[in-house]
# Entry
Amino acid sequence: MQFAGHMAEGADKLWRAWGDGAELDLDQECRRLTLRVLARSVLGVDLDARADPLGEPLRTAAVYVADRAVRPVRAPWWLPTPARRRARAASATFHGLADDILQGCRADPTRDAPLVRALIDVADPETGQPLSDEDIRHELVVFLGAGYDTTATTLTYALWALGHHLDLQDRVAAEVAAVGDRPLTSEDVPRLGYTVQVLHEALRLCPPAAGTSRMVMKDFDVDGYRVEAGTLVLVGIYAMHRDPVLWDHPLVFDPDRFSPANSKDRDRWQFLPFGGGPRSCIGDHFAMLEATLGLATIIRHTEIQSLDDDFPLAVPFTMVAAAPIRARVRPRN
Ligand code: HEM
# Structure
């Protein structure tokens, strides 16, 4: 699968740029990687800039939306508040990028951009109507917004945790070494079971989507409380993933809890990093493939030593690192 090639290549470029003994910010490095991979794989563009071109606009727009959603009293839409002006400018940056991508694909039919092509070619099964350019731009913005921070944070948390547990890190290194000395492909994923367990444990303790919501369609009872149709209910994924009733030693980073033997009797609904049901995350396979090949490629070549005890979290919209996540890196022999 071509996506896998972009993923392994992106991770390879990343670690090669690190000097022996360098101190770096894992969050910044992982954001660079995931943006590059998402852009290359599904949008057909190179977003290789050293600076993070979307992080700031993404957060500005997301903070505004999240903040407005929970305010009991909201300023009317037409009032030009400073926050709204900033959010509009951020949104314009995103939409401008989406438009460049779309027009670039229309102008060059050979450009390898599977998602954009799929959106251009799709037609309403009933009316035969294609998506308008504006619809496509909105879809691209959603994919950029949903797929960038989330995967970056997962990878950052996994690397940070491994940087505190060198024994677990060595297990990942041994697993990937056993695959052989060649670029990893999607066919290797079944042989990277422990690497996937590490990512699941990272997603348990640091689920980038800390919660999700559903509109109740019919009345039902929860623990004797009546919930009426039309109520908006929130599922606290972060709280559930750390609930001592559901998990032994919930704050301990222990990828073995996701071994096949330890997982087989677990309730499917207590681990929901990608949500569940018909509206679960559409990018879950892409994200897991990217994170698995990225983590395995980095650990295969590099030893990570985390320099900070804590992983401070902020929730501007999805859950992200609230500060640089410092680590020292060395080539692995
Ligand atoms: C580790 C990375 C990711 C995590 C943790 C994550 C998590 C989630 C969660 C929890 C939801 C809501 C599901 C629900 O309510 O049941 C969601 C929805 C969504 N995600 Fe992801 N996601 C990730 C990566 C991605 C990627 C890479 C893409 C696209 C390339 C993506 C695109 C979407 C979209 C479009 C939706 C909305 C789906 C719908 O409403 O039908 N996500 N994601």
Q: What stands out?
A: The radius of gyration is 21 Å.
